[in-house]
Amino acid sequence: MNTNDSLIVKNNRAKKMMLWFGMISMSMTFAGLTSAYVVSSSRSDWIEQIDLPFAFTLSTLLMLCSSGTFYLAFKSIKEQLKKRAQSLLLITLALAFAFVYFQFQGFGEIIEQGYYFTGAESSITTSYLYVLVLLHLAHLAGGVIIVTYVLFRTLKGKYSEGNTLGFELAVTFWHFLDILWLYLFLFVSFYG
């Protein structure tokens, strides 16, 4: 870091670094959980393969679309197309809520197949699956709060050319959540 940099530049760098530290620590949490999943798969009571309901595939596609709309909103705000950015942020939120809806639909189908989180009918396999997905949903809830905050700041005209750091950080975090979900989805789908 150059000592001649302005305080604003230094502050922006610090905020970006804090976001990266947070995302790295979240990645390590999920890496640990998926490693435990792999180690536990050698247990005698492990269910070899749970066929994930189509609702999870659909929710994955919705999450990918939400990253696209959020990116386009960020691009729009940089081009000072505020109404377009607002519309795209609303679409991003709608896609996020649709993602959550289909996640719970998928859980409903898993329960209908007889796989439970706790109780006599549960298994270590389903417990891991529930923990992975629910932990991701908890992080997604934080992401939805962030998107909502960015939307309100956009409605109030708080972002202008050269003043988009908050928006940029939000987009970065949202893309991280998307990549994290894609990793979890592919991991659970193909590891067995």
Describe the protein.
The structure is a single chain. With 192 residues, the chain is an all-alpha fold. The protein has a single domain (7-190), classed as Four Helix Bundle (Hemerythrin (Met), subunit A). The protein is 77% helix and 0% strand. It is elongated.
Uncertain runs with pLDDT below 50, 5 residues or more? none
Write the H/E string, N to C: HHHHH
- Average pLDDT figure: 91
Helix/strand class? mainly alpha
Overall number of structural domains: 1
Supply the number of helical segments: 5
Task: Give a brief description.
By secondary structure, the protein is an all-alpha fold.
Topology:
Layout: H1 7-40, H2 54-78, H3 82-112, H4 124-155, H5 165-190
Helix pairs in contact: 1-4, 1-5, 2-3, 2-5, 3-4, 4-5
Core attributes:
192 residues; Four Helix Bundle (Hemerythrin (Met), subunit A); 5 helices; 77% helix; elongated
